[in-house]
Design brief:
By secondary structure, the protein is an alpha/beta fold. The protein contains seven helices and eleven strands. The protein has helices spanning about 5-10, 10-30, 80-90, 105-110, 110-125, 145-150, 200-225, and strands at about 35, 50-55, 70-75, 95, 125-130, 135, 135-140, 155-165, 165-170, 175-180, 185-190. Helix 2 (about 10-30) packs across helix 3. The relative contact order is 0.17. Pfam families: DUF374. This is DUF374 domain-containing protein.
């Protein structure tokens, strides 16, 4: 392990970075003028829910959480995940460590353990926040989030939080992070319920529904700020949008 990696993996450095990231995100939230759609979104959902997001759009998702909502978020066991977990703690969100495996050792990734932890969280009244993508495949919904909804009996709510001023990264997940002093939009989709007795055909149909709804709420959120989604699939790209 190189010197830089050893330094960044030290607990003191990770705590400092996590604290600074959380502070920056709070500043972004305070200095952007946000609108929420629908305006009565929280009156239309029965908490706790499974808040679904696309990977790369996860930095600001906690902006949509009300102060009274208890929340836990799935965070990978990687070194980068440690920074995220610490930042989330400072933002009032509990981290559940683990991720999907996609061809790798699921025990090493902690997927099964994380699933049990998320089920306990939902049963205890905590909202669970997680990315819906298949690991390393951007904006293709995996089966994991649908399975969680089926086992827990709690609905999936697609969420998008975007800002007009932002940094867009050329990463596999087309990540974006907001900048201060702009406009923002939070869009919540309709709750998606997964029956406990759903068969494979139904589960696949609902997986596609989650994917379409996540694409839709992101397209709508970017439209509200007069911009376009940098990670949109070709058929969901907004026409005529420009960055504010």
């Amino acid at each position: 392990m190189g010197l830089v990696k050893r330094i960044t993996r030290s607990r003191a450095v990770q705590e400092t970075i996590g604290f600074l990231v959380a502070g920056y995100l709070k500043f972004v939230q305070r200095t952007n003028r946000f609108v929420m759609e629908p305006a009565d979104a929280y009156d239309r959902i029965d908490m706790p829910v499974i808040a679904a997001m696309w990977h790369g759009q996860h930095f600001m998702i906690h902006f949509a959480k009300r102060p009274q909502d208890r929340a836990a978020s799935l965070v990978s066991r990687s070194g980068d995940g440690e920074f995220n977990a610490i930042a989330l703690r400072h933002l009032g969100v509990r981290a559940i460590r683990g991720s999907g495996a996609r061809g790798r050792d699921i025990r090493k990734k902690g997927g099964a353990q994380a699933l049990r932890a998320m089920l306990r969280a939902l049963d205890d009244g905590e909202m669970v926040v997680m990315t819906a993508d298949i690991p390393k495949i951007s904006r293709v919904c995996g089966q994991g989030i649908v399975t969680l909804a089926q086992l827990s009996g709690r609905p999936i709510v697609p969420v998008a939080v975007v800002t007009s001023r932002r940094l867009d990264f050329n990463s596999w997940d087309k990540a974006s992070i907001g900048l201060p002093f702009g406009r923002g939009a939070m869009v919540l989709g309709e709750p998606i319920h997964v029956p406990r007795d759903a068969d494979d055909v139904t589960l696949e149909s609902l997986r596609k529904t989650v994917e379409r709804e996540l694409d839709r709420v992101h397209e709508r959120a970017y439209g509200l700020i007069g911009s376009r989604d940098p990670g949109a699939k070709p058929h969901t790209m907004l026409m005529g949008g420009s960055r504010a």
